[in-house]
Amino acid sequence: MVESRRSIRQGGAQPLTLEQLGTLLWHVARVQIHRPANPDDPRQYGSSLRPVSGGGAMHELELYLTVTRCTGLEPALYRYDPGAHELEWIAAPGAATQGLVNDAMRAAAMEIPPDVLITLAARFARMAWKYESMAYAAILKHVGVMYQQLYLVATALGLAPCALGAGDSERFAAAAGTRYHEETSVGEFALSGPPEPF
Ligand SMILES: Cc1cc2nc3c(=O)[nH]c(=O)nc-3n(C[C@H](O)[C@H](O)[C@H](O)COP(=O)(O)O)c2cc1C
After folding, report:
1. What is the pTM of this model?
2. Which domain holds residue 77?
3. Mean pLDDT of 154-172
């Protein structure tokens, strides 16, 4: 499976399903173990363990899903709640979400939209209080960790994954309603249902 990982920029006739999407998120981003903060011990801040590793176990990356085609799930912009393993509805499809999809298609020369555009958004303060001037570099390393986990799990599920490197963080903040300096996009990843066999 590790050997067969490739970037696949187009899915096939079968849309991604909600079950496949849920399985992918489960094996990439869910909270496996929550470690609450201890107010009496400043070294024991709130943290969690997840399938991906993360500096300080602080997991500042949030996953947002712009769904265009997924069996069992209405097209919309959602946020993945990693503690509850649930999707939180953020916005209906419209010009703002279409702008995110268009950027993704342009970045990967795609002729049709990915079934789901996964946007990785950083909650900067979650890292900055501890890592200060190193925080942004660590966040970008975490994007790489997350990309590889998304690739490997998507490959194991027989899906079509492709990392992207040209998102528009201002457009994302406007679409998702985040405050730009607190939380915005630092990576994007296209995901579609099973590709047609070569
Ligand atoms: C950080 C990163 C950014 C990438 N950005 C893009 C992109 O914007 N568009 C694209 O088509 N592929 C993108 N890719 C996929 C690479 O083009 C791809 O990994 C490379 O061509 C090797 O192919 P393979 O993944 O099939 O081994 C990106 C990959 C990484 C790791």
Report:
1. 0.97
2. 16-33+45-117+132-192
3. 97
